[in-house]
Design brief:
Elements (H helix, E strand, L loop, with lengths): L14 H11 L17 E3 L17 E3 L16 H10 L1 H5 L4
Antiparallel strand pairs: 1-2
Length: 101
């Protein structure tokens, strides 16, 4: 694609590999960021029927949020926390440097 579209460069970013590495190492490779249990989300439903952000028919909050989101990789079952994205950005730093031209 880069040869075909010279003025619009394409860069492939393997987020799966980065996420897998962070989860396996429980943080970034340099040891600057640590996640004790990287697969455990910070925000979870109080029962299996509920997810992060759910409320019941009366408007009662049906989820809990951890006290230290910075020590969790995932916010909920899908989305990384700010600390999680920070670890991803650090891991991708050399790849992202290629965007400068």
């Amino acid at each position: 694609l880069n040869k075909r579209y010279l003025h619009n460069p394409f860069l492939i970013v393997d987020l799966y590999a980065v996420f897998s590495s962070i989860i396996q190492h429980k943080g970034d490779q340099q040891g600057n960021i640590r996640f004790d249990n990287p697969l455990k989300p910070c925000c979870v439903g109080i029962k299996k029927a509920y997810d992060c952000g759910d409320v019941d028919e009366k408007g009662n909050i049906m989820y809990t949020v951890c006290k230290n989101p910075e020590s969790y990789f995932f916010w909920d079952l899908v989305h990384p926390t700010q600390a999680g994205w920070h670890a991803v950005t650090l891991a991708l730093q050399s790849t992202l440097q290629q965007l400068r031209y």
